[in-house]
Amino acid sequence: MSMFYTPTIKVYRGIDNYVRIEFKNRDQKRVSMTDHTAKIVIIDKENSVAYVERALEPVDPRRGIFEALISEGDLLNLDAKFFTYSLKVTGPEDRTAPAYADDNHGANGVLEIVEGVYPAFVESTSETFASDTGSTIHIKPYINRNTAQHTAQVYFSSAFTGTLTIEGSINPSNSIQNADFTTITTKTYTAQEDNDYINFTGVYSAVRFVRTTTSGTLSEVLYRP
Fold first, then answer.
1. pLDDT tens per residue, range 178-204
2. Is the pTM value of this prediction over 0.85?
3. Which 3 state secondary structure label does DSSP give 173?
4. Which of 84, 114, 144 is the last residue of a domain?
5. Range of 100's domain?
6. Which of 29, 141, 164, 187 gives the lowest tally of CB atoms within 10 Å of its CB?
C-alpha cells in the first residue's frame, strides 16, 4: 500500500481549507495513483467518533498528489483542538485499505483545528418580549470563547423608564431551567428614547433578557454573541 508523508495539518475555522496530500512508497519516492481514489477521515480519538469524511481530488495523480477540501461547514461544530486523521485508498481492484503515515505502518496523522483567522458572521437574535422575561437564547460556547464578547442593541418605541437585566446560564443547553440563570448585568433607564448598546463578557450556554417597566416601551433587543 502507498504511504503518505505530511507534517501536522493545521486548519482554520471560518474559511475553507485546501490540504495537499502526497503519496510515496517506503523509499519516499513518488508513486503513480492514476488508478486510485482516496478519502480523508477526521477522527476524535477521545470520543471514538469519525466526524468528517471527504473524497480527495486528484491534482497530479501520476506523481501521487491529491488535494482535500476541509470546508468551513465541516469544522463548524468541532472544537479547536488536536484530532487525528486517516486516509482510505481504493485501488483498481475496488479494494480499500489504509495509507500509512510512517515506516511502522501507523495509519494516523495529526490534524489541528484552530480558531478562524476571520471571525465568523453570526446573525443577531431578536428579542421582542412576548412577556417581560424574554425567551432563552441558546449559544454555542465555542463561538465566543476566546474574546467572550457579547453585544446587545436595545430599541425603544416610547420613552422608557425601567430596567433591563441580562441573565446567563452555563448549564448544558438541553437542561436549562429558570433557576439556572444568574444576573450578568442590569441597566436602568429613565425616559430613554434613543437606542442603547450594552456589551458584556463571559462564556455562556444561554442568555435571556428580562424587562421591568415603570412607563414607556422597551420594544426590542438585538443580541449577538
1. 999 999 999 999 999 999 999 999 888
2. no
3. helix
4. 114
5. 3-114
6. 29
